[in-house]
Specification:
Layout (H helix, E strand, L loop, with lengths): L1 E6 L4 H5 L13 H13 L7 E5 L2 H14 L3 E4 L16 H15 L13 H17 L4 E6 L1 H11 L5 H6 L7 E7 L3 E7 L7
Helix pairs in contact: 2-3, 4-6, 5-6
């Protein structure tokens, strides 16, 4: 199948650099709403048959214009939410942000027993994302799009796709509404076809 993982539009927490991972999360900014609206034309050529989003409000706000344009219902999954920041939640200092990213990247490297400070392990976080992707694949659609979050998309793709590694993922953060396009399935594995569109292709 073809799977599009889309980072949400800009939020008020993004503007201040906060580790905002708890429900319901911040709303989109005006720019974030413009970014969400732009997905309609950006994805015009993609034969998306199903739309999914996380339980955080920003992903649902981001997918709404696309859902209206395609006439599709959006399925909400808690497993698509952002990596839990634990005791780092809503911190804005560089040390906290660096620790959050370093922990996530250790999971990409296979150190999934490592725990986010005051939060879950990599095995727990990757596992709940796996379960949602398995449900999407099992639905039988040929092309699905899921609006999710930057850190969890990078971490899951880095851990599960066969053609990107931790170094690539660490060097290529996702900007708001950038898309990672994968082909494959949970049984045979996943291949990244495109990373971010306006970033270097893999």
């Amino acid at each position: 199948m073809r799977l599009l993982l889309i980072r949400h539009g800009q939020t008020h927490s993004n503007v201040i650099g906060a580790l905002d991972t708890a429900r319901p999360g911040a709303d989109l900014t005006d720019l974030g709403r413009e970014q969400a609206a732009s997905l309609v034309e950006r994805l015009r050529q993609e034969p998306v048959q199903a739309l999914h989003a996380s339980t955080l409000v920003r992903t649902q706000q981001t997918v709404a214009p696309l859902a209206r344009d395609r006439g599709l219902e959006v399925t909400i999954h808690d497993g698509l939410r952002e990596l839990d920041a634990g005791e780092l939640e809503m911190n804005t200092d560089n040390e906290s942000v660096d620790l959050y990213v370093k922990t996530a990247m250790s999971w990409v490297e296979g150190l999934t027993d490592v725990r986010m400070p005051g939060g879950p392990t990599g095995a727990e976080e990757l596992g709940r994302y796996d379960r949602v992707i398995e449900q999407i694949a099992a639905s039988g659609v040929a092309c699905a799009a899921a609006v999710s979050h930057g850190a969890v998309i990078r971490t899951w793709v880095g851990a599960r796709a066969g053609n990107v590694d931790a170094a690539y993922v660490a060097a290529h953060p996702l900007l708001n509404t950038q898309v990672v396009t994968l082909v494959g399935d949970p049984a045979s594995g996943w291949t990244v076809e495109d990373w971010g569109w306006d970033q270097p292709h893999v």
